[in-house]
Write a structure and sequence with these properties.
Layout (H helix, E strand, L loop, with lengths): L24 E8 L3 E2 L4 E9 L3 E11 L4 E8 L8 E6 L2 E15 L4 E10 L3 E3 L1 E3 L5 E3 L9 E6 L2 E3 L5 E7 L4 E6 L6 E9 L7 E2 L9 E4 L8 E9 L11 E3 L5 E4 L3 E3 L4 E8 L7 E9 L5 E8 L9 E3 L5 E7 L10 E10 L6 E6 L5 E4 L9 E2 L3 E6 L16 H11 L7 H7 L9 H12 L7 H10 L3 E5 L4 E4 L3 E8 L7 E7 L5 E8 L6 E6 L5 E8 L10 E10 L7 E13 L14 E5 L1 E6 L13 H11 L21 H14 L1
Parallel strand pairs: 1-12, 2-13, 21-31, 22-32, 33-42, 34-43
Antiparallel strand pairs: 1-3, 3-8, 4-7, 4-10, 4-11, 5-8, 6-7, 9-13, 14-15, 15-18, 16-17, 16-19, 19-20, 21-23, 23-28, 24-27, 24-29, 24-30, 25-28, 26-27, 29-32, 33-35, 35-40, 36-39, 36-41, 37-40, 38-39, 41-43
Helix pairs in contact: 1-3, 5-6
Amino acid sequence: MQTVKNFLFIGIICLFVISANAFAAVDTRLQPSAEKVKISDTFDVEVRMSGSEMIKGIEMYINFDISKVEITDFTVNAAGLIGVTDIKVMDNNGEARFIYADQTGFMLGDDTLVATIACKATAEGNTRFEFDIDSTIILGNENPPNEISGEFSVTPVYVIPVPPTNLEARSGIDSVKLMWNPSPSPYFASYNVYRSEAEAGPYTKINTLPVTGDYYVDNSVVSGTAYYYYLKTVDIFGNESDSSNIASIMQPGQLKLFIPDSHGDKGDQIRLPINIAYADGLEMCSVDIYVTYDSSVLEATDIKKTPLTAGYGWDKNLEIPGIARAVLATVEGEKLHGEGSLFYVLFDVIGEKKDTSDLKFEVTGTFFYDCGDLFEPVPLELNDIGLFTVGCPFILGDVNGDCVVDQSDIDLVLEIAVGKLTPSDDQFNAADVSGDGFIRSNDASLIMKIMEGADLAPTGSELRRMRSARSDVVNVSVPDDLTVSVNSSVWVPIEIDNTANVKGADIILNYDSSLMTATDGRTTSMTESCNMEINTDQAGQVRISLIAKEGQEIGGGPGTLVEVQFTAKSDILGNSASPLTLSSVRLNDSYSRDFSTSALQVDVKTDPGTLTVKVDAGDMDHSGIVDLRDALLVLKVLTKMDTDAFYADADINGDRKIGIENAIYILRAASATE
């Protein structure tokens, strides 16, 4: 960067001789109009000076982080301006420069506004504005003009994280479960959960510990009280995002049952799921559920248990045409965990093509009694009506609608799970085999069961085996010591310490897209028998879904589940580190049961990693190597063929100057690579 002795005060201060001594002091500071902004927000950074001096000349250099901020304008506010105003972006560094020169000058006061930098936030994280003190000059009123010393201060600007999306609330027997799509914030740390009894507020934070993952259970609800919720993302700097959408529950304690739309061809036997939105804490001692249907289209033949209710034994009453009754009576029920299908009704399709039948609950005959209260039935929401249509496309598991449940349907489920495909309503109902209202790898697990002709719920002996084999804690992590050079790529492993009973996984990994790009993914020796889908389209977030192939589970023991390839960008300001945060990890067994939320009750813990993008000393063009091109660039600077730029990566010894010693270093390094 040009030194002050060379900078130009054209035609005005050309006769001045700059003194090397400093006779006075001026406080100069950078003051942002907002300390916290969102991506795409515009804000100003004001240059303010305080003192009692007459100022006749200023040459000021301000560095900023171009990976986080774009400068859109630069206004010099000093009265009587004669000179030039300039904005320079040099060698992937960001620098704003302005020059003021006037023989009349202006008198400083307390907190005088000298210049305004108009900015736009482009990426999350701490933004960096700082004075280049070695190159900034302030001239006073002495003759010859004196160089004024002073203090320089900066107030940081934080680009706040993005909130999670699609917040949803579901009522359980004594709790409310919140679910959402994770924030793509690269500096994500946790969420805060806020609740109110009125939509307009006030809202109070209810979590006492940091919330991670993609769900939260509120166990402090009172029956008969409406609740409203929103979430805020918290980043590693402690900044909160704006609020998410508001989700509400009008009647805590009321359980919602629903029947999805379905299809089946004449002569087929179909499996119709009866689903519960959220069953946590429910102990079923006495249940009687009536489902009515058109007996000219369907004929009920059986009731089957599901992964959710595998510990129960359902009885049936199918004697009356048009009514399917699922009955359960027990002295002591097993507590349910999670959500999904309560039971399946098996039907023979007897109608003609395009015939339809409503499937709905008979409200007056349907009841639940929890083992904790055998005097009052559990409140139920039974308004949902499912529609059955005669026709083979989109039977349960037939996601592509070709009338066959096969590997192509599993492939589509994985594409939906990572967000590559938005399903139609028919596709969604066919893909959501688990009945939990989401499409994830656990649905692919059940589609595999359908392909095998196997039962969708584990037997009693299988339940006992799984309980004895599982671990109480599974750790999924990313290494914390990874590096990559600019313009280069690296494979980042996602590791797991125990894969016992793991059939599938859904993983979301956040990273800083201002530093790097996720470009690919691959399985490993542990998961080579798996089908995997990866979505790297969303900047800053990678979504992965994988499922072990038919008849297999993911290999046991610790190891690497998958690897993600990252390519570092070239326009990096020195060595820069990106967090690699596992914002959501879901593991499931071969019966679709989520390790954390189902009866398995395995604590899936995650540990973030870090990937540092390294800029090698002397790599002036950020090509990833020091070569003759860098040597030519440093020679241009030394011979003043390139006088406007200061190349930080050529300043090997850190003295803010480009000298012959730096050139010798680069020439030696370049000769070693040629």
